[in-house]
From TrEMBL:
Subcellular location: Membrane
MF terms (GO), sorted A to Z: purine nucleobase transmembrane transporter activity; purine nucleoside transmembrane transporter activity
Identification of the protein by name: Probable purine permease
Pfam families noted in UniProt: PUNUT
TM ranges: 47-68, 80-104, 111-136, 142-164, 171-188, 208-233, 245-261, 281-307, 314-332, 338-358
Key word Hydrolase present: no
Keyword Zinc-finger: no
Any one GO cellular component localisation term in the record: membrane
Sequence similarity: Belongs to the purine permeases (TC 2.A.7.14) family.
Membrane topology of this protein: Multi-pass membrane protein
Organism, scientific name: Durio zibethinus (Durian)
Keyword field: Membrane, Transmembrane, Transmembrane helix, Transport
Coiled coil: none
Length: 364
């Protein structure tokens, strides 16, 4: 579908540049025709699944971020608990994976030592990544934390270039510079959105942990792609689900060890009693936090295989402003002029990166 739209778009651009009497109305009409042909080329079930997967990315991921902030804003204090919640829902993709073996006649990927060790290592990195993000959401407003987390695109591109030898073109480099500038704007405007209960030192550390977590997130993406290229050699949907289940499981194991050592499981009882809204609200925040995080990951995985990496990138860029806007409306996050400017610059950076990805795919 993507290739068809691109080819038709290029042809229409050539007609416009040749000086023909090609009106905007005719361009829109031709684009609608191509889009309709693309729609008819797939069964209705494909578009329903794509819609639900896109909804998962645009709703579940922001909801997970907001719930993390709700936990801290209403009396929660444990960073380990929030990082544990992010992977506690690992059985959810497993429940989707196992039926694929039965109904689609697929077989589990043979497990060797290298693949096993890669799952363990990626699980450890994911556990560390979730813990860093937990510290960020403990000290930063959700809108600020989500904007800073968008820098993971920068690190994904850089680590992909260094580790997997992915190509970088001018548009992608431009996106890296733009998003870095947006992060700098947030740093310069730190006094406008700091909570009264958060010290200057905690705010700075929240900023640092968010950037470090984004860097580690980018490294995990690059290493995951390297595992597929080196060890798995294929990217069918059930293979990606297997990887997600195994990495989430080992992240769950590592995080559970941290929670036990820190004695946070025992602390959950007393924490739930002092939580604003009571024990029921406390449990609902944690349960829905686990569900929404896994649904967001599942949605992103499905979009990659039902559409393209470009569409996944578009949705990922859209969810950043959605999270920030939702945080302002629902959690009453402060939104200064600098943060609004940073939001627009970040969106511009995402658009530049997506353009570079499309342009690179056309040249390859």
């Amino acid at each position: 579908m993507q290739e068809l739209l691109l080819e038709e778009g290029d042809r229409m651009k050539e007609e416009v540049s040749s000086g023909s009497s090609f009106s905007l109305l005719e361009w829109v009409s031709k684009f609608q025709t191509v889009a309709w042909e693309a729609y008819q080329s797939k069964p209705i079930s494909h578009w329903i699944l794509l819609f639900l997967s896109s909804l998962g990315m645009l709703v579940a991921f922001p909801a997970s971020s907001l719930l993390s902030r709700v936990y801290y804003a209403n009396g929660g204090t444990s960073k380990w608990i929030i990082s544990w919640v992010a992977v506690a829902g690992w059985p959810i993709p497993a429940l989707i994976l196992f039926p694929t073996y039965l109904f689609f006649k697929t077989s589990p990927t043979p497990l060797n030592l290298y693949i096993f060790l890669s799952y363990v290592f990626l699980g450890f990195l994911s556990a560390a990544d979730n813990l860093m993000y937990a510290y960020a959401y403990a000290y930063l407003p959700a809108s600020t934390a989500s904007l800073l987390a968008s820098s993971s695109l920068v690190f994904s591109a850089l680590f992909g270039f260094l580790i997997v030898k992915n190509k970088l073109n001018a548009s992608m480099i431009n996106a890296i510079v733009i998003i870095t500038a947006a992060m700098t704007l947030i740093a310069l405007d730190s006094d406008s959105d700091k909570y009264d209960s958060v010290t200057n030192s905690q705010y700075i550390w929240g900023f640092v942990w968010d950037i470090l977590a984004s860097a580690l997130h980018g490294l995990i993406f690059a290493l995951t792609e390297l595992v597929f290229v080196t060890f798995l050699g294929r990217r069918s949907f059930h293979v990606v689900l297997e990887q997600q289940v195994m990495v989430s499981f080992f992240a769950f194991v590592f995080t559970s060890i941290g929670v036990i050592v820190n004695k946070d499981f025992q602390g959950m009882v007393s924490e739930s009693k002092t939580f604003k809204g009571g024990e029921t609200a406390y449990n609902l925040v944690l349960i829905w936090g686990a569900i929404t995080f896994q649904l967001g990951v599942l949605g992103g995985t499905a979009v990659l295989f039902l559409a393209s990496t470009v569409m996944a990138g578009v949705l990922n860029s859209v969810r950043v402003p959605l999270t920030s806007i939702a945080a302002v409306i629902l959690l009453h996050d402060p939104m200064s002029g600098f943060k609004i400017l940073s939001l627009f610059i970040t969106f511009w950076g995402f658009a530049s990166y997506i353009y570079g990805t499309v342009d690179g795919s056309k040249l390859s």
